[in-house]
Q: What sequence folds into this?
């Protein structure tokens, strides 16, 4: 058996790299193992990178990182068949330092981020799959890879292997994901000249926009769609929980096709050329699904620990923040030369005190509420659209009369009491 | 036994997609990779070293600083040392200037450890010329054996190897005295899945990087653009060929038309 | 002084008393260049016992044959052939020197270019000259795109190029043509040779079949996967054709590499060429465009392959090809016999 490292990090997504970077920076001997051809080669996300958590690892990263556009406008669409109600915020203060968020393409971003780790001394190896943790006396002491002579030891193994985390499953930290705990998301990258993007989305070169789409984007299933602007391409995607996809016998491709051809969406994409098609799972179980995150000689970070806020589509930031907290705990553990579960539980404590678990707890019932009450998507979005249409159509009806009609439209079919119940339930879920 | 393999970093042409309408590269630029033939060249060196039970494998590349990546890749496959010559003065080199610069670096490598075999890829997939290998051999005054598909025997005592060389239709067997230069085809071997210790060694490895100043007795007039007799005159889209008749109608109809066309051209079609 | 260099030369590849096809093609292409420049065309012939071939070289268009006949030159070897060719080139100073882009032609040209310190353009598919500047315009598909690049060698002589087999046209053989034979002698000792040819093995398997095939069904990446590619084999079997593929198909491992057609694979000139799910990248097209009848099936009406195709069908291969197979089979039944292409 070959040499021993202080830390082995499995996976080079945002969670793994954040952790590897910080450990190496503090002088630990770190080996990072990634199965892809290079970090990010297969990684997927809609594309919003949060400034704050990234900056906490690499200050002023925006001067150096391969970012697409700083986001200055966030729009929300409540979309029906031939209409959409939209609201949003555009603020040009977000077009300059310190910025708010950015759009990114994961392949170049992850690669850049991992390279930063390498510059801190991380030994990064690609095209290598970690097949299992080596466990001795209930302690994780290293990993086994699919390569010849493929075993390697470390004081701490960091599982940052993403949503499926077979490794955390093997250790019994978590179970296999249930279909209602994950969303299947499919997306495409569509090339479109910069000028067209700027025109269609009313942007300057250094401004980006995100559109979150609810309602008819998912053919009435629980889930959402998105359309984000890159420099000279668009990311469009849609996802629903695996369970609704199975129940509705939906094919992910069909869903994305439906969205791309939707009359509200198609004109924004017209003339673009699809250059990449990607599919990926998103952990959506939220608070209830967070597994055991620390054991003897091992911690679990990022998607592997189900740290995603489905409602606000935050994931990469939680991944980075959890990677950072894990690194801090590992550095302390190293000082004490104590890699026991008790010692590494500092990470768990930090996690539960941070925004991550607080946010996840806040929204802990949201997904379930929406899943079990499809009327939010199926009924209220169309109603809202009809209401807006009525209100803004100039047809000689007095406004007061219109409001009455609208209220009747909302409550008529379902009864006032039901509507109030639904609204209360929704408010409770996301409050 | 000292084997030096010349390795080049090339864009992955498998991934590069060109827009047929505008004749431009997709800007989502393809990642740079180790020229696939050169990977086989390194693998062959590893095979020879293993068969001999001893030896040292060095790799040499000329290119921008990022080309250290292909040296690391070569270390993964099993090379021991890596050298990159990187300098503005080398830029824009055609095959003649490339073989000159590489042979100067080989001279320097040989000064420390005499070289027994140089191995190159059959060609680099970005230009498909295959001219650099024989060029190096001429400059070192050693025999070049191109298109090698097998090294069948290695006679250490007499310093002779036996190789198979691919021909237009068939192959020939050659007996070659060392030192010599081989350029290898893909079928010469299969790239083995590198063991983990090699991967770690590669991740840690820092290649030797030389600039022009580090090489001895270089005639700068023979380097880079200046030393390159060939220049690109113009780029053009090839003249459109005639033909281009698209058949029309439903699929069945089109297939029927096609069958008719084929039957009409009796000189082509022979229905027994 | 580059003005001293005059004449167009072609290296004549021969084995077993036969001149390689590509050398005849180059004599054809070279004669056009020589005519434009108003200089003689010469063939460079090396070997053992090959004097009789001189008349053939002349019959295919050469005005002069430079000949070196020597036992050491029995088989091609870089070191011995290079000595002979260098000697001739230094003595007679040609301005243009062409070689076939075959293993031996490329090998020799690369060595000679290094010794003569001149430019060499690889795998040329178009040749022309700028008469005023007396510049060879050697064009080849350029890296990565559907684009050709013309390579020039302005200051060094000779201007050298290797040329793809089967893209140039040979002149028809003219027995009555007259020419000059210049025989030279050089000193070559077998003992000085560092390489020995032990054995030459002719291979008459698939690869040779492809080059000589009368009908080829070539499949591209558009077939989707190895499973989809079976359609290509099925069609080929039905009509008795050989199977080929694009580089992408070879890279994907759906076919062995000797079946690659194109710039880096085989150049083919069958009577009928089916290109199915093939985009028609220039590197592919240079390897098949001289086929007599080209039929393309592609679901993208803008695919460049349709510019080369005699007939094109815009459609899904998975739909069109089974129908084609079915109709051919039906035709066979109607005709009461075999359908096969000769
Ligand atoms: C369609 C979609 C849209 C999204 N949009 C956003 C968004 O806009 N903003 C946002 O913040 N988040 C978004 N997310 C979530 C975000 O992508 C994830 O939360 C984040 O990538 C998690 O990072 P990670 O490092 O934990 O996991 P990953 O990024 O999945 O990285 C895991 C890494 O581990 C490697 N790996 C796995 N197993 C092994 C093994 N056995 N051996 C070696 N290596 C292994 C993988 O190759 C991978 O590189 C989105 C997700 C999806 C699918
Ligand atoms: C230096 C160099 C040398 C090269 N040498 C060669 C060479 O020797 N030979 C060679 O072939 N290539 C060569 N290439 C590669 C070449 O540039 C192209 O990439 C390659 O030929 C493309 O292969 P393809 O047509 O199979 O695939 P693609 O370009 O991916 O084309 C697939 C085609 O199939 C069509 N299609 C998709 N689905 C269907 C369907 N269901 N039914 C019908 N049609 C469908 C698509 O519209 C598309 O036109 C070389 C490249 C370089 C850079
Ligand atoms: N820049 C370079 N650095 C190192 N080796 C090279 C370089 N260019 C070419 N070679 C070697 O020469 C072979 C043939 O390249 P080419 O003549 O460019 O097709 C390659 O397979 C390499 O082994």
A:
């Amino acid at each position: 058996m070959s040499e021993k490292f202080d830390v082995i990090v499995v996976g080079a997504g945002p969670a793994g790299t954040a952790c590897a970077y910080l450990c190496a920076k503090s002088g630990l001997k770190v080996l990072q193992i990634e199965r892809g051809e290079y970090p990010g080669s297969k990684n997927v996300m809609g594309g919003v990178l949060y400034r704050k958590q990234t900056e906490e690892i690499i200050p002023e990263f925006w001067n150096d990182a391969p970012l697409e556009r700083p986001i200055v406008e966030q729009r929300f669409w409540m979309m029906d068949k031939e209409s959409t109600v939209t609201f949003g915020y555009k603020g040009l203060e977000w077009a300059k330092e310190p910025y708010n968020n950015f759009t990114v393409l994961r392949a170049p971003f992850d690669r850049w981020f991992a390279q930063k780790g390498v510059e801190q001394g991380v030994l990064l190896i690609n095209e290598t799959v970690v097949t299992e943790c080596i466990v001795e006396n209930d302690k994780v002491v290293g990993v086994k890879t699919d390569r010849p002579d493929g075993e390697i030891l470390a004081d701490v193994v960091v599982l940052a292997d993403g949503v499926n985390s077979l490794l955390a499953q093997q250790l019994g930290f978590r179970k296999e994901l249930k279909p209602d705990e994950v969303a299947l998301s499919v997306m495409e990258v569509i090339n479109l000249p910069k000028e067209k993007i700027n025109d269609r989305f009313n942007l300057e070169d250094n401004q980006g926009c995100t559109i979150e789409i609810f309602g008819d984007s998912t053919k009435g299933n629980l889930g959402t769609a998105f359309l984000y602007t890159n420099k000279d391409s668009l990311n469009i995607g849609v996802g629903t929980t695996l369970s609704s996809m199975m129940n509705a016998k939906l094919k992910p491709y069909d869903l994305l096709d439906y969205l791309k051809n939707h009359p509200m969406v198609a004109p924004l994409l017209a003339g673009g050329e699809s250059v990449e098609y990607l599919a990926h799972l998103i952990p959506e179980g939220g608070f209830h699904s967070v597994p055991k995150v620390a054991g003897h000689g091992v911690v679990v970070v990022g998607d592997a620990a189900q740290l995603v806020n489905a409602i606000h589509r935050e994931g990469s930031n939680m991944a980075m923040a959890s990677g950072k907290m894990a690194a801090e705990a590992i550095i302390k553990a190293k000082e004490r030369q104590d890699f026991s579960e008790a010692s590494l539980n500092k990470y768990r404590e930090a996690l539960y005190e941070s925004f991550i678990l607080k946010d996840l707890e806040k929204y802990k019932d949201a997904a379930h509420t929406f899943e079990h009450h499809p009327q939010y998507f199926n009924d209220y979005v169309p109603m809202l659209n009809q209401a807006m249409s009525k209100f803004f159509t100039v047809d000689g009806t007095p406004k007061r009369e219109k409001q009455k009609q609208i209220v009747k439209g909302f409550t008529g079919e379902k009864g006032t009491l039901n509507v109030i119940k639904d609204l209360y339930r929704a408010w409770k879920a996301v409050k | 036994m000292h084997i030096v393999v010349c390795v080049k970093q090339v864009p992955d042409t498998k991934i590069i997609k060109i827009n047929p309408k505008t004749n431009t590269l997709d800007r989502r630029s393809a990642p740079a990779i180790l020229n696939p033939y050169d990977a086989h060249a390194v693998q062959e060196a590893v095979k020879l070293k293993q068969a001999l039970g001893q030896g040292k494998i060095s790799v040499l590349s000329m290119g921008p600083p990022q080309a250290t990546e292909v040296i690391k890749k070569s270390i993964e496959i099993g090379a021991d040392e890596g050298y990159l010559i990187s300098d503005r003065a080398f830029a824009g080199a055609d095959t003649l200037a490339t073989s000159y610069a590489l042979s100067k670096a080989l001279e320097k490598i040989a000064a420390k450890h005499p070289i027994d075999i140089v191995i190159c890829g059959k060609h680099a997939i970005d230009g498909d010329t295959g001219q650099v290998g024989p060029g190096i051999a001429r400059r070192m005054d050693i025999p070049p054996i191109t298109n090698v598909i097998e090294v069948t025997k290695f006679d250490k005592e007499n310093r002779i190897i036996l190789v198979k060389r691919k021909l237009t239709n068939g192959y020939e067997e050659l007996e070659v005295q060392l030192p010599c230069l081989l350029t290898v085809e893909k079928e010469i071997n299969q790239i083995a899945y590198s063991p983990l210790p090699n991967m770690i060694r590669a991740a840690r490895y820092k290649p030797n990087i030389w600039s022009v100043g580090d090489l001895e007795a270089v005639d700068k007039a023979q380097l880079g653009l200046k030393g390159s007799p060939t220049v690109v005159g113009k780029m053009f889209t090839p003249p459109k060929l005639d033909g281009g008749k698209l058949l029309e109608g439903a699929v069945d109809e089109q297939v029927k038309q096609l069958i008719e066309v084929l039957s009409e051209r009796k000189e082509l079609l022979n229905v027994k | 002084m580059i003005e001293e260099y005059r004449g167009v030369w072609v290296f004549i590849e021969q084995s077993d008393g036969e001149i390689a096809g590509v050398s005849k093609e180059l004599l054809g292409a070279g004669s056009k260049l020589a005519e434009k420049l108003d200089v003689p065309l010469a063939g460079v012939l090396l070997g053992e016992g090959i004097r009789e071939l001189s008349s053939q070289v002349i019959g295919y268009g050469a005005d002069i044959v430079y000949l070196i006949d020597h036992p050491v030159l029995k088989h091609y070897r870089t070191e011995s052939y290079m000595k002979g060719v260098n000697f001739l080139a230094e003595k007679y100073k040609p301005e243009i020197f062409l070689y076939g882009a075959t293993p031996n032609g490329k090998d020799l040209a690369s060595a000679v270019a290094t010794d003569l310190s001149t430019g060499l353009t690889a795998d040329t598919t178009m040749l022309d000259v700028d008469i005023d500047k007396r510049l060879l315009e050697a064009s080849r598909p350029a890296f990565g795109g559907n684009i050709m690049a013309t390579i020039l060698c302005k200051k060094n002589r000779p201007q050298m190029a290797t040329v793809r087999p089967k893209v140039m046209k040979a002149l028809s053989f003219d027995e009555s043509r007259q020419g000059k034979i210049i025989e030279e002698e050089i000193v070559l000792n077998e003992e000085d040779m560092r390489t020995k040819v032990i054995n030459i093995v002719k291979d008459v398997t698939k690869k040779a079949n492809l080059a000589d095939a009368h009908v080829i069904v070539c499949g591209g990446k558009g077939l989707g996967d190895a499973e989809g590619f079976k359609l290509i084999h099925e069609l080929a079997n039905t009509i008795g054709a050989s199977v080929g593929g694009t580089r992408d198909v070879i890279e994907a491992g759906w076919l062995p590499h000797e079946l690659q057609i194109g710039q880096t694979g085989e150049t083919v000139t069958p009577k009928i060429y089916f290109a199915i799910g093939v985009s028609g990248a220039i590197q592919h097209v240079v390897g098949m465009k001289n086929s007599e009848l080209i039929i393309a099936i592609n679901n993208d009406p803008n695919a460049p392959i349709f510019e080369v195709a005699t007939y094109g069908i815009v459609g899904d291969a998975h739909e069109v090809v089974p129908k084609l197979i079915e109709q051919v089979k039906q035709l066979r039944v109607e005709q009461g016999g075999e359908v096969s292409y000769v």
